[in-house]
Amino acid sequence: MTVDWVCKHHSELGKEQLYAILRLRSQVFVVEQNCVYQDIDGQDMEGDTCHLMGWDGDQLVAYLRLLDPLLNGNDVVIGRVLIAPEARGQGLGHALLGEALEKAQKYWPDVPIFLSAQAHLQGYYARYGFVVVGEQYLEDDIPHIGMRRA
Q: Above 90 in pLDDT, residue 33?
C-alpha cells in the first residue's frame, strides 16, 4: 500500500474529500464502534482547523483532524483519529501520528498538543511523548484519558 498524505485547511477541502472524511468517520465511529453521537460537531470548519488524510489511490485509509489551538485552550487538539478497517495492521497509525506531529509543529510551532485517547492506547501515545492529564472517563461507553505533549 502506498499512502499519499494530504493536510488541508478546512477551507481547501473539496466536496469529495469532505464526503470521504465524513463517510469513513461514520463507518468507524458510529457503525463499527456502535457510538451514536453527533460526529459533525461544528468543529470541522472552525478557525484554522486542518484535516490530515492518508489516501491509497482514491480511497481514504487514514484520517485525523487538528483543531485550532486558539479555540481550544491554547492546545492543538488531535481528534477523530482513525484507520480504515481494510488498512489496519500495516503501521499506518504510526505514520498518521508522525505526520500529525509534523504538521502541528509546522502550523503551530511549539504549541502543546492534546488528545483524548481510548484508555487502552495510553502506552501507544506515550511512545510519542504524550503524558496522562486528568482522570479516566467514559465517552460513549468507551474508557478515555486526556493526554498532552508539551
A: no
